[in-house]
Design a protein that fits this description.
The protein has about 120 residues and is mainly beta. The protein has one domain: Thrombin, subunit H (Beta Barrel). Helix content is about 5%, strand content about 55%. The longest helix has 6 residues. It is globular. The termini are far apart.
Length: about 120
């Protein structure tokens, strides 16, 4: 990357194009348990851009479960569970700034049937 390109980049960490299934739910009190499914578009250690059918307004707090490609001990599926704030929304896409995350084991059925 050239120095001129680096100076235009505002993100603190690099984004990686990765497509994984996600399940999310809005944590704000007025959300009425709003939740949905989508796919990641790209990820970094500080944020996730993903597809969504819902209008997720900036400022809303989400909990997101991402189907993780690696397994624990090569046998147990994992999911990344992150909490963060919606920082950007465009029709069909939302960007979340990760404020907290942890890895958890994922049941045999994957993210379907699992509450975030």
């Amino acid at each position: 990357m050239h120095l001129a390109e680096q100076s235009n980049e505002r993100r603190a960490s690099g984004r990686f194009p990765i497509e994984r299934e996600i399940r999310y739910r809005v944590l704000n009190k007025k959300s009425n348990n709003e939740s949905g499914l989508g796919k990641t578009i790209n990820m970094s250690s500080t944020g996730i851009l993903f597809s969504t059918d819902h209008a997720l307004l900036p400022g809303r707090t989400l909990e997101i479960a991402v189907s993780w490609p690696a397994q624990l001990n090569n046998s147990c599926p994992l999911k990344l569970v992150a909490r963060g704030r919606v920082v950007r929304f465009a029709p069909g896409q939302a960007a979340v700034e990760i404020q907290h995350y942890e890895f958890r084991t994922q049941g045999a059925q994957g993210l379907s049937g699992v509450t975030v």
